[in-house]
Amino acid sequence: MKVERITLTHVRIPLVKPFRNSNGEVSEKDGILVRVDAGGLAGTGEASPMSGSFYFDDTPASVWKFLTERLIPAAFAAKVDSVASVNRVLERTGGSPFARAGLETAFWDLEARAAGKPLYELLGGYNVPVESGLAVGITTGIPALIGTIEKYLAEGYKRVKIKIQPGWDVGPLGEIRQRFGDIPLMVDANGAYAREDIPHLCSLDAFGLVMIEQPFPGNDLRGHADLQMKIRTPVCLDEGAEDVAAVRRAIRMKSCRLVNIKIQRVGGLANAIAVHDLCASVGMSVWAGTMPELGIGGAQTLHLATLPNFSYPTDVESSARWFIDDVIEPLITVREGMISIPAGTGNCYEPAEAAIGRFRIAERVFKP
Ligand SMILES: [Mg+2]
Questions:
Q1: What integer pLDDT is reported at residue 80 of this predicted model?
Q2: C-alpha 191 – ligand 1 centre gap (Å)
């Protein structure tokens, strides 16, 4: 399968509403689509950094630069023609996990299409519907939070996750419990707390949360271990589970009981499977998080989430939950809290060329 062409398309799609977490606010979603053409087939991946280094240091501009100047030339130089060969190149180059995920996942789609199979089959997953959870950002007040949860819970989402930060935790949680009873509920702090907050965080046990995600900054595995020793609620790592080595350290230090796996954060599907397998080997459950990505990345997360050790609802939601439109057809749709991957090959969701054209802000074609 000789690669004839790689096309990068930077798209920017307005969000239905701005999203706020403990790091700041965004109102548009940037994604860099990576299309690999080979042998009459095309595979598509997505590199999906948030603008303004909202989650990690990578930005759309830095990811574009790394793909154009480093990864694509390295891939052509090595004559990559498969998932395995592109991963050998990516291991050597290292660097931006978002950029690596974009290129690597395009090859997974291509390889699955060439095999005439849906992506989940190549990943070791199954043809099963995926449970979807609702994620709600930090709102301007509790009534807005309650209103948002009420609106989307009607679509049947299987649990609610709210973003928290110091000063925005016990208040909203108390209101949610009072209003919605014992719905499956979890929190994500995106590293907004410090070790001094451990006694306060332990008070969140009273809310019977499914998990508390990333209370401390990413590299503070010791802090997370100290908290997990004292709190009944399972601690989940997201930013701190940046690669297989970090997860291995976290397991050894007992920093968490759960891991959120994001394809973008770990630099592609092969690494995501490696983290899944490592956690399964020690009896630790995982679940599939999102940036959130646009539809290509979202679709690939759904395929990943069909692997057996994904044990909690995914953060992948309906396309219409976040974006005014999406780059795939059909759109991702939650029905009674579940997402069914359509029949097909590869990603099973096809690139929506009209929408991609409408939201495109840059495009560049590379040939070997
Ligand atoms: Mg998170």
A1: 97
A2: 9
322 and 356 belong to one structural domain: no
Provide the token pair at 367: 């040939």
Same domain assignment for residues 189 and 324: yes
Q: Map tokens 């899944």 to a residue.
A: 276
Structure tokens that stand for 206 in this block: 């009273």
Instruction: Answer yes or no: do 188 and 133 share one domain.
Output: yes
Query: What is the distance in A from the centroid of ligand 1 to the CA of 190?
Result: 6
> Given this model, what pLDDT does residue 52 score?
63
Does the bond joining 330 to the residue before it have cis omega, within 30 degrees of 0?
yes
Task: Kindly give the distance from the C-alpha atom of residue 289 to the centroid of ligand 1, in angstroms, as a whole number.
Answer: 7
Cα 254 to ligand 1 centroid, rounded to whole Å: 19
Which residues carry out catalysis?
Answer: 163, 262
The first and second tokens of residue 158, run together, are 């299987």
pLDDT at 22: 73
CATH number of the domain enclosing 12: 3.30.390.10
Which 3 state secondary structure label does DSSP give 348? coil
165: Cα separation from own chain's centroid: 21
Domain CATH for 290: 3.20.20.120
- 344 assigned to some structural domain: no
Q: Which residues surround ligand 1, an ion (CB under 5 A)?
A: 188, 213, 238
Residue-wise DSSP of 148-203? HHHHHHTTT-S-EEEE-BTTBSHHHHHHHHHHHTT--EEEE-TT---GGGHHHHHG
For residues 79 and 97, what is the distance between their CA atoms, to the nearest angstrom? Answer: 21
> Is 127 among the domain residues?
yes
Looking at residue 271, its pLDDT comes to 98
pLDDT of residue 133: 97
Note the pLDDT of residue 345. 98
Residues of the chain with pLDDT under 50: none
Phi, psi of 156 (to 5 degrees): 90, 10
Verify that 263 and 144 share a domain, yes or no. Answer: yes
Assess whether 111 and 184 both reside in one domain: no
In a domain, 280, yes or no: yes
Whether the model pTM is above 0.90: yes
Could you tell me the residue range of the domain that residue 87 belongs to?
3-117+350-366
Collapsed DSSP state (helix, strand, coil) of residue 94 = coil
